[in-house]
Amino acid sequence: RPAPGPEGTVxxxxxxxxxxxGIAEEFGQVGGTRSDxxxxxxxxxxxxxxxxxxxxxxxxxxxxxxxxxxxxxxxxFGGVKLAVETVEQLLAxxxxxxxxxxxxxxxxxxxxxxxxxVTNEKGFSPSELPGEFFPAGEITLNGDSALAFVRDRMSxxxxxxxxxxxxxxFLRGLAKxxxxxxxxxxxxxxxxxxxxxxxxxxxxxxxxxxVITGVAGSxxxxxxxxxxxxxxxxxxxGTIRGQSVVVLDQAALEVVKGHFAxxxxxxxxxxxxx
Length: 274
Prior knowledge:
This protein is an alpha+beta fold. It has 8 helices and 12 strands.
């Protein structure tokens, strides 16, 4: 495994399972499902910045013990352990904690907060909610509409690329709601939110309630604009072994790996936006 990250940093792997049957009780066993969402969250040492990096689920990578395949297959081949190994190998970055949530968990989290307001980049009619339309701009989602918002890809010409952007928009809106409406320094409020999503959540044994409330408390002063998202760099799509895949930009990925290594993702993202 890669060495631990810089002192004070915490790196999470967040996996969204495509299962509609809920999360298995035994950690790491996810019934052969694939990961619909793959997000690496890095909290910096100063605890004043969080970077969320989405990895396209069809990214063509090396899966330890299985050769090259789409990255979302790792969860199906070897459960959470293999998914973690695959991401660690890809980024040369130690994953400190991992959580798997099925998409019903998005519904529960949204309802627990009384709705989530997101900035929608492209107006669309979600395939899972016939007759509904999400206009471009600021919209407020309830549990059902949140689930449709983060899952839809058929409405877009670029499919998963826009879906990943929508998932990032949802997470930014969710974080803003948490920071504004929930006192992260209040363990009771934090655990109430965790309890709402717990039936749809797996977490590693080390991610205890004390760890969750401790990390949340350390982020109590975080400003919403200091939670930033981006996507692992790609060169576009291609076809490998008859499969449509996303091709990672290896040179650009090496740069990202360097910023993970020295805890400078904030500077990296400032350069990208500039």
